[in-house]
From TrEMBL:
It comes from Streptomyces sp. SID7499. Pfam families: ABC_tran. This is ATP-binding cassette domain-containing protein. Keywords: ATP-binding, Nucleotide-binding. The keyword rRNA processing does not apply. InterPro entries: ABC_transporter-like_ATP-bd (IPR003439), P-loop_NTPase (IPR027417), Type_1_exporter (IPR039421). It comes from the Bacteria. Residues 62-134 form the ABC transporter domain. One of its GO terms (molecular function) is ATP binding.
Amino acid sequence: MFTFDEAQKSGASLTRLVGVFSEPSEARLVGDGSVATADIASYPVTVRDLTFTYPGSEDPVLRGVTLSIPAGGSLALVGATGAGKSTLAALIAGIGRPQAGSVRIGSHDLADTDEAGARALVSILTQETHVFSGPLADDLRLAAPDASDDKLR
């Protein structure tokens, strides 16, 4: 059953998603690996033989992962808890560096791009939920910032 609490969480999450997707894409890789202005959706993302092990662990969470996302495409990562979905997404977003393999946006390896450049190129939506402790009116104003108290009632 869909409860009011779930509806409230979903509405707030949707507002945040709309905000993220409404942001203009300003990043473009240039020959020296720096970032300039253009539409990043025109670049494919290629992951080749990616291996990643967390510090203090002997077993890689990712081993030999290879995938391609065509320009303008999207990817859904689905799997069991601990399978490496969030780790793979973080590495594609330039958060952390793999022990082996590469992540490329267009023809540029993220290993050759600084963190600021990677952040300009990639957005990541995590699976964590956020609980708001304020009044319901604050949550509703996420979708309608200028709404009066009367309109919220």
